[in-house]
Amino acid sequence: MNVPVLEIGGSHLTAALVSLEGLRVVRSRRFHLEPDVSSAAFVATMLEGAAWIDVPAGSTWGVAVPGPFEYDTGVGRYAGVGKFESLNGFDVRQALVTGLAQTPGQVVFLNDADSFGLGEYAAGAAKGFTRAVCLTLGTGVGSAFVADGVSMSAGPGVPPDGEAHFIVWGGAELEETVSRRAIRRAYAEKTGENLDVHEIAALVRRGTSPAIELWNHTFRALGEALSPYVRDFGAEVLVLGGSVAGSFDLIEAPLRKGLARDVVLRAAVDTEHAPLIGAAVYAVTTA
Predict the structure, then answer these.
(1) Residue 168 φ/ψ, nearest 5 degrees
(2) How far apart are CA 285 and CA 287, in angstroms?
(3) Which of 78, 223, 229, 231 could bridge to 84 as Cys pair (CB 3.0-4.6 Å)?
């Protein structure tokens, strides 16, 4: 069975066809989106991507979208968040259903971080575990708390709505310490140099002291912030994806020190395709 999927990020839309038999992406294509895109331009890009997939009428679609979003109704709620403001109150589901020549059957929406976590759980680094915490580290901190193949939004060890960025560490939300902008800001304050995260990571590899100090502090802090949640959720594995997690080999040691508990740490197997697979799996199990 092949499932059509759309995955929407802050600067892109990916259209894909996912095989459930092999839990693999049959084909995919990436389209550019600006965060300040108009609703008309957004719909045009979405329909171009959806038409490219070319599936029969009546197909069940999975659509992964960042929040704030009403996932049950398909309506955007992007007010004052610096992205997709034109979609605030906009019915994305209706635009997709009415805009395609081959009318979709059910259209199922889910959070993009949840789609990543479900994809890694089904076919990636969390496969074979019962309970997993999956994080995407980049412009922010995305998260999925997955138990028995279900992304949890409440319960022991689960932050509000399952979103780790609500976790407070050092008197501020976690993104003020661990995100790309936070790491860049902290390094600039420490050294006066404006470097990106991959450049700071390169300095860590070369043994540069200020970079090592900041790096170890940042990811030990991540471990300390997550530790009670990992414990109370009963997580067996913690998976890291996203652009920052590309330096997982440098992150693992300070992160483990902060966690101070026995949990498997793994880098995501496929940060690009995991959200597509997760959206497909969610669509057919929810529809």
Answers:
(1) -100, 130
(2) 6
(3) 78
CATH architecture, domain 125-267: 2-Layer Sandwich (3.30)
Residue 158 in 3-state DSSP?
coil
In CATH, 2-111+274-286 is 3.40.1440.10: no
How close are the terminal C-alpha atoms of the chain, in Å?
14
Q: In b/e form, how buried is each residue of 115-135, taking b as 16+ CB within 10 angstroms?
A: bbbbbbbbbbbbeebebbbbb
Return the number of other C-beta atoms located less than 10 Å from residue 272's C-beta.
Answer: 15
Q: Which two tokens stand for residue 269?
A: 């197997």
> Would the CATH topology of 2-111+274-286 be identical to that of 125-267?
yes
* For residue 82, pLDDT beyond 90: no
> Any idea where the domains of the chain sit in the sequence?
2-111+274-286, 125-267
DSSP annotation of 76 reads: E
What is the C-alpha separation between 62 and 248, in angstroms, rounded? 29
pLDDT of the residue at 81: 84
What is the rounded radius of gyration, in angstroms, for the C-alpha atoms of the chain? 19
pLDDT tens-place string over residues 234-265: 999 999 999 888 899 999 999 999 998 889 99
List the one residue out of 126, 34, 111 whose CA is nearest residue 65. 111
Give 161: exposed, middle or buried? Use CB within 10 Å, 0-12, 13-18, 19+: middle
Query: Amino acid letter at 78?
Result: Y
Instruction: Tell the residue number behind the tokens 């329909």, with chain if given.
Output: 47
pLDDT at residue number 10: 79
* DSSP at 91: B
Residue 235 to residue 257: CA distance in whole angstroms: 17
Q: How confident is the model at residue 176 (pLDDT cuts 50, 70, 90)?
A: very high
For residue 241, give the nearest of 147, 118, 152, 159 by alpha carbon. 118
